[in-house]
């Protein structure tokens, strides 16, 4: 087997693993661009994974499963939006609560569904990977070259200014968070109807947290998220592939270490690209400074 | 309290959706987790790590340092203690104290990097501590499958068993490793005194409530936060020592060393509302939820994950009700409105609300 073939093989697998990372990260990027951190990705993904599997198994249509996953992810995100935007509770804690709740619910509901392979799985590399790349490009264009994009970024950078312009800050944040949740749901659904067409409890296995890291690593830029997802996906694949020669764990911890490193470097040398949206994590109340 | 109650009702709804009568479920839980002989002490098995970790988090939260990394700090403590027990010549009665000291240092060191990044470069500590959790998780799983895998347990991913000197004594007839429990109680009391009566405690409180004012009166933010994080990480590290020395007697898969204690402790600390002594109650409550999880697994054939449903719901209701609670208190002097307006309506209230917030 040639070296080129081997590298290509690794990259293709990296893309397969990178796909849920990309979808999830795109959603998280949009939510964070609007100023709302959602640490509930892991929870939304696992719910998406379970409901996608259940819907696909019952109806026989994996595409329908993904649709259901998007709806469920959006609904879970709605809860986060309500608590963090309307009730203005701590976003980080609310996200953690969503992750716990999602993992718990999926584990509870999914009990009878374990161990059956999906009868009609989606081919892994057929639809979602290329669609994810297209989506990333579209979201990038939307973010940087349209009026909507400016509105979204303004809400994340300076909600007071957006408010003064007559923009409904809460509405924009709700939309961004729910949209992010829908993508996270699809990302989870990809796992259970295409990547590993079955349902196992806790099957997201921390991918949701990598997504959170990825959004930062990609400096909240949908285009960079493509490369970053491929990188993290490849790292994860290599950790299995090279198991015979090097232990998998050091490679698996790399996405997390990279993210800390990138944050530190960005803060140290003031790299403009890695400036987080200024109002990230802050609830907005009109009149409050 | 209302929040917890609401969470239990919501969980009851989930039970019934699951095809189990919620009243029956709670009756079974109450019976099997409290009444059945030998069940009651089980509560304290999870209470111990939750108490130690929760007290540490109370300190951190009081200083407005959002330490989400207790899980990783706990694991780091467990690793340090294991290192002492298996790979140093320390033996005899000194073993356990040295293990606790090592565990404290391990946990504190694991919390050091995020705190330095926060203090020096203003990097968000929530993200870094969270990332450190996963680094710790993979680190432990690398240790137990690789260099530390016990030669005598070929094929299994854990270390050799600790020598007897590294086993924590248990209260007879139970599985409570009492030295760790005592340590937790002492720590809770100590932190309460620290917060209420000492210079450092004062600095922590001022810094947490108003960093601007803290800077103005000359409180050294670097020193305060660093001390807080050393204590907070160290306390989580102690919990890790308790788990390996009191329960498992070896280092094993990270998800078995800690059943998400580091995350649950966040709720324990949040619910304690910054009062170190209140963690004694809240940690016991969550110990009860953990032991109920075991009960539900056995008696109701529900997966253990049901505990994270409880945890998630309680946390949601808790932070959700905080806002409502704050408003209700502030409206108290006025005649109570017929139907309490949703907080969303708050921004449209007449001027003057800035001062209330």
From TrEMBL, chain A:
Q: Which domain of life is it from?
A: Bacteria
Q: Where is this chain's protein located in or outside the cell?
A: Cell membrane
Q: Which PANTHER family match?
A: ABC TRANSPORTER PERMEASE PROTEIN, SUGAR ABC TRANSPORTER INTEGRAL MEMBRANE PROTEIN-RELATED
According to UniProt, the name of this protein is ABC transporter permease
Q: Where are the transmembrane segments?
A: 6-24, 36-58, 64-85, 92-113, 125-144, 174-196, 202-220, 227-246, 252-271
Q: How does it sit in the membrane?
A: Multi-pass membrane protein
Q: Which source organism does the UniProt entry give? A: Candidatus Segetimicrobium genomatis
InterPro entries reported in the protein's UniProt record:
ABC_transp_permease
Q: Which GO terms describe its cellular component?
A: plasma membrane
Query: Which keywords does this Swiss-Prot/TrEMBL entry list?
Result: Cell membrane, Membrane, Transmembrane, Transmembrane helix
Q: What one GO molecular function would you report for this record? A: transmembrane transporter activity
């Amino acid at each position: 087997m040639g070296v080129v073939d081997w590298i290509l093989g690794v990259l293709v697998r990296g893309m397969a693993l990178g796909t849920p990372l990309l979808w999830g990260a795109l959603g998280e990027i949009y939510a964070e661009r609007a100023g709302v951190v959602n640490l509930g990705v892991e929870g939304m993904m696992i719910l998406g994974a379970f409901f996608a599997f259940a819907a696909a198994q019952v109806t026989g249509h994996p595409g329908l499963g993904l649709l259901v996953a998007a709806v469920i992810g959006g609904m879970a995100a709605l809860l986060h939006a309500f608590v963090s935007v309307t009730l203005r509770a701590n976003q980080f804690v609310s996200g953690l609560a969503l992750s716990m709740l999602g993992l718990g619910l999926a584990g509870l509901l999914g009990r009878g569904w374990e161990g059956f392979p999906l009868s009609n799985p989606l081919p892994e590399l057929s639809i979602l990977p290329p669609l994810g790349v297209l989506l990333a490009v579209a979201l990038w264009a939307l973010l940087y070259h349209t009026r909507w994009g400016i509105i979204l970024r303004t809400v994340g950078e300076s909600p007071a200014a957006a408010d003064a312009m007559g923009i409904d800050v809460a509405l924009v944040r709700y939309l961004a968070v729910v949209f992010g949740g829908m993508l996270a749901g699809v990302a989870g659904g990809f796992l259970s109807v295409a990547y590993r067409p079955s349902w196992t409890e806790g099957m997201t296995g921390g991918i949701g947290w990598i997504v959170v890291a990825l959004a930062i690593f990609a400096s909240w830029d949908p285009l960079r998220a493509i490369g970053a997802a491929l990188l993290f996906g490849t790292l994860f694949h290599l950790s299995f592939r090279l198991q015979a020669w090097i232990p998998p764990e050091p490679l698996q911890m790399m996405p997390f270490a990279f993210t800390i490193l990138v944050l530190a470097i960005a803060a140290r040398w003031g790299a403009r690209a890695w400036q987080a949206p200024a109002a990230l994590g802050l609830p907005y109340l009109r009149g409050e400074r | 309290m209302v929040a917890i109650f609401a969470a239990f009702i919501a969980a009851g709804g989930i039970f019934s959706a699951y095809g189990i009568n919620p009243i029956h479920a709670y009756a079974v839980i109450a019976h099997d987790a409290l009444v059945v002989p030998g069940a009651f002490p089980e509560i304290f098995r999870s209470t111990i790590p939750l108490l130690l970790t929760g007290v540490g988090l109370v300190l951190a939260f009081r200083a407005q340092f959002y330490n989400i990394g207790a899980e990783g700090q706990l694991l780091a403590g467990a690793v340090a203690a294991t290192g002492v027990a298996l790979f140093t010549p320390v033996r005899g009665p000194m073993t356990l104290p040295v293990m606790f000291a090592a565990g404290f240092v391990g946990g504190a060191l694991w919390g050091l990097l995020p705190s330095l990044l926060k203090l020096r470069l203003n990097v968000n500590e929530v993200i870094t501590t969270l990332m450190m959790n996963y680094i710790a998780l993979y680190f432990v799983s690398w240790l137990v499958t690789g260099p530390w895998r016990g030669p005598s347990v070929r094929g299994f991913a854990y270390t050799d068993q600790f020598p007897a000197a590294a086993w924590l004594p248990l209260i007879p007839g139970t599985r409570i490793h009492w030295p760790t429990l005592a340590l937790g109680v002492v720590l809770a009391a100590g932190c309460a005194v620290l917060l209420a009566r000492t210079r450092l405690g004062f600095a922590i409180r001022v810094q947490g409530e108003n960093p601007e004012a803290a800077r103005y009166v000359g409180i050294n933010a670097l020193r305060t936060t660093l001390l807080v994080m050393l204590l907070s990480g160290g306390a989580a590290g102690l919990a890790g020592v308790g788990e390996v020395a009191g329960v498992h007697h070896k280092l094993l898969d990270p998800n078995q060393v800690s059943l998400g204690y580091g995350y649950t402790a966040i709720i324990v600390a949040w619910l304690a509302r910054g009062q170190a002594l209140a963690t004694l109650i809240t940690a016991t409550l969550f110990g009860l939820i953990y032991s109920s999880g075991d009960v539900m697994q056995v008696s109701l054939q529900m997966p253990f994950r049901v505990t994270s449903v409880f945890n998630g719901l309680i946390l949601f209701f808790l932070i959700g009700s905080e806002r409502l609670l704050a408003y209700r208190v502030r409206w108290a002097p006025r005649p109570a409105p017929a139907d309490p307006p949703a907080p969303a309506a708050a921004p449209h209230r007449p001027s003057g609300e800035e001062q209330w917030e």
